[in-house]
Write a structure and sequence with these properties.
- Two copies of one chain form a homodimer.
- By secondary structure, chain A is an all-alpha fold.
- Chain A is 67% helix and 0% strand.
- In chain A, helix 1 crosses helix 3 and helix 3 runs parallel beside helix 6.
- The longest helix of chain A has 21 residues.
- The radius of gyration of chain A is 19 Å and the shape is elongated.
- Chains A and B meet through helix 6, helix 8 and helix 9 of A and helix 6, helix 8 and helix 9 of B.
- The first copy, chain A, binds a DNA duplex through loops.
Chain lengths: 187, 187
DNA sequence: ACCTGAACACCGTTCAAGT
DNA sequence: ACCTGAACACCGTTCAAGT
């Protein structure tokens, strides 16, 4: 006797993302997700292996969203300007969904790492910029330097590590400008 | 009738640090700490407000250790070389105590933020380098760029985000070299 | 004054029993 | 085939009772 499906993986993931952002990682409990989608907690295990798996799915969905934002940044003739727009897009994304962003920086508590291809595809626009700035043979190194800086800066900003005074906005722009110049200078 | 003290805050913090490094954040439970110091879990609350407080103390102890390592880096006439040694010291520290390092990057699960003065003092050598490289008026911006890059790079490395091939070591040195040049170029 | 067992409110997860 | 209640092994934390 089949029972009608009372929820879906999509509803579960949506509930998990909303809970993560509104209540933090500790608020993302199987109980709370179940309540939100209208079933009992054990039912979730029909659609999801366990909590770690659910968190991994949320992380991957976030990577895809971030990738879409980055692919939407227009490509102009000025690579330096593109880098600025790109960096601001990442930062804006992180500010609207800080908890999800922490998840994909490798800093948040993700037990199961997200799919590598997803990350590669999401960051494809960055590799274009890095290659244009530093030349094809240093593209990977340059891309890593840029992601490390952006990820580190935004993580620290979200953690409130920049309370020493000074303008955080200006420090971010200072970083972009000097990084952009650093690569171009050594082509 | 006083009972003899069967443990101490020092023993508790030591146990917590060992557990964090060997078992990860999830393994750092009040139960496990109590077992290790030879009391029952409720007794810990005589020395520590709660688990979040214990984690904060561990984070602060880690900042002090990192600060000691950084202050031990010799100051030479070549600021560029100092920066290289400094960055390598941070990375070496992170590799020996990855879980504790994550705690102080603002990426790990620290509910209560560590004392700001501790961080300022620990990073004092960096500010010297930043001021020498970028000039006193841009010292803060430069220091933030450097810490963001180093913290982000090492965090991603520890999370295994650099599996795209290529030499991680080389990417790190590439980052130092270009950052060092970037600031000096614009003095 | 410190330590303890017992208890409480939570977790994630499993599983037999329902429909 | 999906959903559920009950149960299990864990958490962190409180507190009255011991010494």
């Amino acid at each position: 006797m089949p029972t009608p499906e009372r929820t879906s993986i999509e509803a579960i993931v949506l509930a998990a993302r909303e809970l993560l952002e509104s209540q933090g990682d500790a608020g993302l409990t199987m109980q709370a997700v179940a309540d939100r989608v209208g079933v009992r907690a054990p039912s979730l295990y029909k659609r999801v292996r366990n909590r770690d798996d659910l968190v991994r799915i949320v992380a991957e969905a976030t990577i895809q969203d971030l990738g879409a934002q980055l692919h939407a940044v227009p490509v102009t003739a000025d690579v330096g300007q593109d880098l600025i727009e790109f960096a601001h897009a990442v930062r804006a994304f992180a500010h609207t969904r800080p908890n999800a962003f922490r998840l994909i920086i490798g800093t948040g508590p993700v037990a199961v790492p997200p799919d590598l291809d997803l990350i590669t595809h999401a960051l494809a626009p960055l590799f274009r910029i890095a290659a244009d700035l530093a030349g094809p043979e240093h593209a990977l190194d340059a891309a890593r330097t840029l992601t490390a800086w952006a990820g580190g800066f935004i993580t620290m900003e979200l953690a409130g590590a920049f309370n020493l005074g000074g303008d955080v906005e200006r420090a971010f722009d200072y970083g972009i400008a000097h990084l952009g110049r650093a690569f171009t200078a050594s082509t």
